[in-house]
Specification:
It is built from twelve helices and 25 strands. By secondary structure, it is α/β, with parallel strands linked by helices. The protein folds into two domains: 221 residues, UDP-n-acetylglucosamine1-carboxyvinyl-transferase, Chain (Alpha-beta prism); 204 residues, Enolpyruvate transferase domain (UDP-n-acetylglucosamine1-carboxyvinyl-transferase, Chain). The structure holds shikimate-3-phosphate (S3P) and phosphoenolpyruvate (PEP). Catalyzes the transfer of the enolpyruvyl moiety of phosphoenolpyruvate (PEP) to the 5-hydroxyl of shikimate-3-phosphate (S3P) to produce enolpyruvyl shikimate-3-phosphate and inorganic phosphate.
């Protein structure tokens, strides 16, 4: 069903960021194997995360919603995970499916895994390759796409692995398998990625070694057989979701947006660093911490943005923010160039193509590069007036709707249903700011 975002002269408001998707998956996964009962507040109730909760329940944990964003998880502890009665359906979620593959690898169980059309097109050999080296068997060969069956093992062997892609999902899958492997599992990251698995494992009582080597290389080590103990934790706000609201404030003719409780972690802050390089002045105030992460309130207002070459060192720390960066680039003066971001090709859709098509459909000059894209900024509101194909991709849908709040003509999208995977309150939050987004064509 088509939805349309119409230009408005002002976007003002104060909002609380929804719970972080990455941390919410990890809380349910680690809580589900811990000894004892964990309690979480502020958990993201997006479809991706709910499916991870359902999978943990099907594997033997007890996962209960006790209130809005409040979840109680009793882990399987010494009993371990057991084979689920039915297939585990991960919907649209790369993180849920991939982290759970790593986790399940270390238990004597068999599980069928599946997902929606988007997830079934995403590469899984990047996860299966190291897990097979540790002792997992599967039916994915040779295509490495869902659906397939996994058979884990209680006798996994630890490995040392250097993921060929900068991917927190690969790192996390190997570490979660390493929790139940014999020996010390080591992951060597050439380009550091989000470190929530390391931080949260420590929070649950595991010892995780992290050291820095030559260049940016980060080495993470984890001795198998460590026991996790239940925790009480508040999930920090999601910087990737907050980025949409902050961008809306920046492009609005009269923007003043304050987002509270956003996780401030250098492995996630690339979008904010880049927005400042483009000329945004973002207010940031420290407000404490949650689940081992710092929290800040971030404020944005109307800005004259300048196109930039995105420094490649920022790419892993803003990997989910390229669709909304494409929107900022369209409003900026001059050219924005993204390189070193080939991972965008294997997200919910090919995000290089999807971003370029989104911009072109709205009168913005943009072109693909093998590992990124180039946008010629309009030096103000882009024409708009297009219908954007979202291709099962929540971040394309939200980015296009944000563009429509300040472009010359309305911007429409062909579907919004998948926004629920990561940000169910998105439309309500945009309405609070004063956006005009509704069902139907313009
Ligand atoms: O570990 C995680 O929680 C995530 C890792 C990233 O994927 P990759 O590991 O494929 O880069 C990111 O795109 C995804 O939204 C969440
Ligand atoms: C890539 C994303 O998520 P996932 O890999 O978990 O599907 C995302 O949320 O932008």
């Amino acid at each position: 069903m088509v939805w349309t975002s119409r230009p408005v002269s002002r976007l003002h408001g104060v909002l609380r960021a929804p719970g972080d998707k990455s941390c919410s998956h990890r809380a349910l996964i680690m809580g589900g194997i811990a000894h004892g009962t964990s309690h979480f507040t502020g958990l993201l109730e997006g479809d991706d995360v709910l499916r991870t909760g359902a999978a943990m329940q099907a594997l033997g944990a007890t996962v209960t919603r006790t209130g809005a964003g409040q979840w109680e998880v009793t882990g399987t502890g010494a009993r371990g995970l057991t084979s689920p009665a039915a297939a585990l359906d991960f919907g649209n979620s790369g993180t849920g499916s991939r982290l759970m593959m790593g986790l399940m690898a270390g238990y004597a169980l068999t599980a069928e895994l599946c997902g929606d059309a988007s997830l079934s097109a995403r590469p899984m050999n990047r996860i299966l390759t190291p897990l097979r080296q540790m002792g997992l068997t599967d039916t994915a060969e040779p295509h490495g796409r869902l659906p397939f069956r996994l058979t884990g093992s209680a006798a996994l062997q630890a490995i040392t692995y250097a993921p060929p892609q900068a991917s927190a999902q690969i790192k996390s899958a190997v570490m979660l398998a390493g929790l139940n492997a014999h020996g010390t599992t080591i992951v060597e990251e050439a380009k550091p990625t989000r470190d929530h698995t390391e931080r949260m494992l420590r929070g649950f009582g595991a010892e995780v070694g992290v050291s820095r080597g030559a260049g940016q290389v980060r080495t993470i080590s984890l001795l198998g057989g460590q026991k996790l103990s239940a925790i009480e934790a508040a999930i920090p706000g999601d910087p990737s979701s907050a980025a949409f609201l902050i961008a809306a404030g920046l492009i609005s003719p009269d923007g003043n947006v304050l987002v509270e409780g956003v996780m401030s972690n250098p492995t996630r802050s690339g979008f904010y660093d880049l927005a400042e390089l483009m000329g945004a002045r973002l207010g940031a105030e420290d407000t404490g911490d949650a689940a081992g992460e710092r929290l800040i309130d971030i404020q944005s207002g109307s800005a004259s943005l300048i196109g930039r070459n995105v420094p490649e060192r920022l790419v892993p720390s803003m990997i989910d923010e390229f669709p909304i960066l494409g929107v900022l680039a369209a409003f900026a003066t001059g050219e924005t160039v993204v390189t070193g971001a080939e991972e965008l090709r294997v997200k919910e859709t090919d995000r290089v193509k999807a971003v370029v098509d989104m911009l072109r459909a709205n009168g913005v000059e943009a072109e693909e590069r093998e590992d990124g894209f180039v946008v010629q900024g309009c030096g103000g509101p882009p024409p708009g007036g297009g219908l954007v194909e979202t291709r099962h991709d929540h971040r394309i849908a939200m980015s296009a709707l944000i563009m429509g709040t300040a472009s010359q003509k309305p911007v429409s999208v062909d579907d919004i249903s998948m926004i629920d995977t990561s940000y169910p309150e998105f439309l309500a939050h945009m309405a609070t700011l004063g956006a005009d987004i509704s069902e139907g064509a313009s």
